[in-house]
Amino acid sequence: MAKNCVTVVEIGSSMLRAVVASRGVNGIFNVKAKAEVEYAGFFEGDFVERTMLEDAVMSLFSQIHSSYKKEIEKIYVGVPAEFSQVMSATEQLHLKFKKVIRQRDIDELCDSVLSKINVDEMEVLSVNPIFYILDDNRKTLNPIGAKTGKLSAEMSIVLAQTSFIQLFNKIFSRAGIAQVEYLSEPLCEAMLILEKEERERTCIVIDVGARSTSVAFVKGEGLSNLASFSIGGSYVTSDLSEACRLSYNDARNLKKQIVLSLKGGPHDFYEVPTIGGKVAQISMNYANEVVCYRIEIIAKAVNECIKRFAKEYVPYYPIYLCGAGISKIKGGKDFFAKCLARNIAYGLPPVPALDKPELAGMIGLLQRALDEND
């Protein structure tokens, strides 16, 4: 594989995705190959059809190899929030006298944190600073070059379930992949969509996927907390299917028509073509109520996560929405914001033609993989 080219795999809650790409000019990517495979997904931190997972991965790489003929020796794999945990640690570097801080001092601080981490059935993915403190109690994100007699840090440690890594190591080994590096998808996503200045204060990134939602608290270069639960956009589709007596695929087509900002009259309908050439007429207000009901449930769960983990100034935390679960529903973001009683902005990748909230996770992984490769 070309040295400047990386292969990234995203483990979604209903879809596996892979991209082979290199850096292009003006912040774009040169995509050599991409593929996606729908599969049974995961629920509450476990895969629904574990025996079928390997077949799905093999199908994914079969698609990739059909258009990318070079050998893939190493891949980068995103670990979803449901298989992750975030810890924080305070560490201090003991200095004998005032000195100018160098990179080796930062490395020593991180090594000291790593040496103290021992969590059963979890593996460390990353150690990142939330902030550093100098001897004048000044907080900074970049102490290199500063002269100080004391350096301490609040560190974020992201861990992944050992069972998740072992499972995919076996599968990728059978697929002929020699090296696998695991990345935290919530962290990569947050670092992509948030500017450094924004991360000087706590921000919240909510990613609503198909069957899973994550709530990441972001500060500095790390995650201060992370929560997740197994509800997402596919539940909206299931609700429409059941409430409107439609097949799941027809409910998907109905969901694409939903506009939550519209208030219809008694004779306003969504029209859904069904099997056999028939057209089902679904009351606009009824369908919208069904969708709003599920979004309210997701918002209530998100609010519980925020109350549980936020320490201060909760109403003022900026909130960003990623994932396709709500963002692809017309009017979904605004109704979600109303449910949370907060302003919400889309979390958009700063990449031309790829600035969509549903792409933030994959683009974040790709950006981090290219940085690591460089």
Short key terms for the protein model shown above:
374 residues; alpha+beta; Dna Ligase, domain 1; five-stranded mixed beta sheet; 10 helices; 20 strands; 34% helix; 32% strand
Shape: globular
Contiguous low-pLDDT stretches (5 residues minimum) are none
Q: What value does the average pLDDT take?
A: 93
Main sheet summary: 5 strands, mixed
Straight-line N-to-C gap: 14 Å
Rg result: 22 Å
Q: Main sheet: which strands, in order across?
A: 3-2-1-6-13
- The CATH topology label of the domain at 84-159 is Dna Ligase, domain 1
Q: Count all strands and give the number.
A: 20
Structural class: alpha+beta
Helix content: 25-40%
Number of helices: 10
Write a structural description:
This protein has a domain at 84-159: Dna Ligase, domain 1, CATH 3.30.1490. Strand 14 and strand 15 (213-219) form a beta hairpin. It contains ten helices and 20 strands. Strands 3-2-1-6-13 form a five-stranded mixed beta sheet, sandwiched between helices. A five-stranded mixed beta sheet has the order 16-15-14-19-20, sandwiched between helices. The chain has helices at 50-67, 103-115, 162-174, 185-193, 233-243, 248-257, 284-309, 324-327, 332-340, 360-373; strands at residues 5-11, 15-23, 29-38, 42-43, 46-47, 74-79, 84-93, 99-100, 122-133, 139-140, 147-148, 151-161, 179-184, 203-208, 213-219, 222-229, 269-273, 279-283, 319-322, 344-346. Helices cover 34% and strands 32% of the residues. The longest helix is centred in the last third of the chain and has 26 residues, at 284-309. Helix 5 packs across helix 6. By secondary structure, it is α+β, with helices and mostly antiparallel strands. The radius of gyration is 22 Å and the shape is globular.
